From TrEMBL:
The chain crosses the membrane at residues 440-460. Keywords: Flavoprotein, Membrane, Oxidoreductase, Transmembrane, Transmembrane helix. It comes from the Eukaryota. Belongs to the NADH:flavin oxidoreductase/NADH oxidase family. This is FMN-linked oxidoreductase.
Length: 465
């Protein structure tokens, strides 16, 4: 049976555009947080980690967030294609080349964060409507109120996605993935709970709400031609009351199939309802490992030809192979496992003499969340730190203390970044070249900045009084 499973997962897949993937395993997109926030360009650390993943034997590698607007970043240390300067092209060429080093097809994931743009990046982000995020444990005063986009601004964003895809094609990427999941901008347009007040062609009924995604996919296909992979990442559900339902998203899948999309990666949730982090309650889904396989099975009744990539929860080779054989999935996406085991595809496609299960991390995250509620999203950050280790030429560390990454690494990474806000941006501009400095120095520096900023604020307030 193991040999049959290996043969199933090793089988090539020909996409509708004619491009062939060498096997059915894909490295799913993961936010890297590796770019210099002053430039948002790919760098040596990106090349290092993608070369490592390329050696892992995947048929497909999808990058983390590549933003189409530096004012709408998911995180200020992500890559952004905004200027599209030819002088930067060499860096993107190396980025694509690193991911394709071992015969994988490489896609750049294009995104716009919309209302999920952090306040430090943009205090007044653009969104379909002025509906604020409602985040558990976060006071509303700390969440930005978005500005509803005009029709012209929506079309400018559409054109940014299309132009960015053309830029990626010139750099050597085999295709792009349009991020329409996890509560980011395109997902916000699809969500009737967020897209609530528009009266133009991008609001109201579902046919209008999915118009932006339709125009982007068809625009990329028109610009880049038939041999370029055009993929979409789509929620199975928003897992929210009044959000986009599974039936809504099956209709979106139908539209994408008609618009010549090459495959859809199925995911789910958003910042407000984080199914993407594995917080899925459906018992049948838990038993079958894959969080979104039930949705894929239902979607297959309507969407017959367009391949589906299912990401989230897969851990055993037999379950992955059965998902392919059943026809529910055409590709298996691996996310967190590749952070700890970057060559996991090689292992899955070898040694037919034993049942293979992806090794689990040594941290019991359910217990951590129960004992230390303040950890919050520390699990996600913990995996991001493993990517950073790979980028620096180190091996993953499965025994890293999770509390460190919530109380130390996360604030440093997500708050005290260059090009965010005064005065930390000034201090970081001076400290950034000290790349080998110990994290204690950086924390001390950050603490000093906070103290100075607080003191300055008090003095200013007194003077005004």
């Amino acid at each position: 049976m193991s040999q049959q499973d290996i043969e199933t997962l090793s089988a090539p897949l020909t996409l509708p555009c004619g491009v062939i993937l060498k096997n059915r395993l894909g490295k799913a997109p993961l936010t890297e947080l590796l770019a210099d926030a002053r430039t948002n360009l790919p760098n040596e650390r990106h090349f290092n980690v993608y070369r490592r993943w390329a050696r892992g034997g995947y048929g497909l590698i999808v990058t983390g967030n590549v933003q189409v607007d530096r004012k709408a970043m998911e995180a200020s240390r992500n890559v952004a294609i905004e200027r599209q300067d030819e002088k930067d092209m060499e860096l993107y060429i190396r980025y694509a080349k690193a991911a394709k080093e071992n015969g994988a097809r490489a896609l750049a994931q294009l995104n716009h964060a919309g209302r999920q743009t952090p306040r430090a990046v943009n205090p007044r982000p653009k969104a379909p409507s002025d509906v604020k995020l409602s985040l558990k444990g976060i006071p509303p005063a700390l969440v930005s109120t978005p500005i509803a986009m005009t029709t012209e601004e929506v079309q400018q964003v559409r054109d940014r996605f299309i132009a960015a895809a053309g830029f990626c094609q010139k750099a050597g990427f085999d295709g792009v993935q349009i991020h329409a999941a996890h509560g980011y901008l395109i997902s916000q347009f699809l969500n009737p709970h967020v897209n609530v007040s528009r009266t133009d062609q991008y609001g109201g009924p579902l046919e209008n709400r999915m118009q932006l995604l339709k125009e982007i996919v068809e625009g990329v296909r028109s610009l880049c031609g038939p041999g370029f992979i055009v993929s979409v990442k789509l929620n199975s559900s928003d897992f929210q009351k009044h959000g986009a339902s599974e039936q809504d998203n099956i209709l979106v899948l139908e539209m994408l199939e008609q618009s010549l999309c090459d495959f859809v990666e199925v995911s789910g949730g958003s910042y407000e309802a984080p199914a993407l982090l594995g917080h899925v309650k459906k018992e049948s889904t838990k038993k079958r490992e894959a969080y979104f396989l039930d949705f894929a099975s239902e979607a297959r009744k309507t969407v017959k030809k367009m391949p589906l990539m299912i990401t989230g929860g897969f851990r055993t080779r037999s379950v992955m192979a059965e998902a392919i054989r059943s026809g529910d999935a055409d590709l298996i996406g691996l996310g967190r496992p590749v952070c700890l085991h970057p060559e996991i595809a090689v292992a899955l496609l070898s040694n037919p003499y034993k049942t293979f299960t992806v090794p689990s991390p040594k941290i019991d995250w359910d217990q951590v969340r129960t004992e230390t509620p303040m950890i919050g999203n520390g699990e996600s950050l913990w995996y991001s730190a493993q990517i950073h280790r790979l980028a620096d030429g180190m091996e993953p560390d499965e025994e890293m203390a999770p509390i460190y990454f919530t109380m130390v690494w996360a604030p440093r990474q997500l708050v005290y970044e260059p090009a965010t806000f005064f005065p930390t941006n000034v201090v970081w501009a001076l400290a950034w070249p000290v790349k080998k400095a110990h994290h204690v120095f950086r924390l001390t520096l950050a603490a000093g900045v906070v103290a100075a900023a607080t003191a300055t604020g008090i003095l200013v307030s007194r003077n005004r009084a």
